[in-house]
Please model this.
Amino acid sequence: MTLPPFQYLVDAHWRDVSRLAHALAGPVDGDDVAQQAWVQALAAYPRMRSHTNLRGWLLTITSHCAMDLHRSRGRRAVPAQDVALIGEVSGRLLVEGPDRNRPDEALWAHVAELPERQRHAVVLKYVVDLEHASIAKALGTTPTMSRRLVSDALASLRIAALKDVI
Model:
């Protein structure tokens, strides 16, 4: 069975890739992550043997590109006058300088503070609307573990929301 032209894949899934990239990398780097995902997908596309789940394949590539971005930030030197500022700068992953008066920005600030795998699981579940089996495949784990990651993340977000109220 032959693969459809790559343009059909782009036309069908560009919104999903863009939404996931922006959710995982933030508004500043989302376009770069999406572009990197499309470049990697284009390079790998001719070697594909099966096209049963192209959307899941694309979202997995996008997730990996976002992880690469976050890992590269951790390796990058951060110029700072004061050593105490380094922790502040590296702690902001999705939202830089959130306005805590706007509820959605406060939520994304809390999501940014989650551990990496929990953050990715929550975004894949509630932004991209994937099932746990697809989340597990994207994160390289089991569906049971993906449920656990989402559950633990939601528990952490509830605690953070309660602290904001109190």
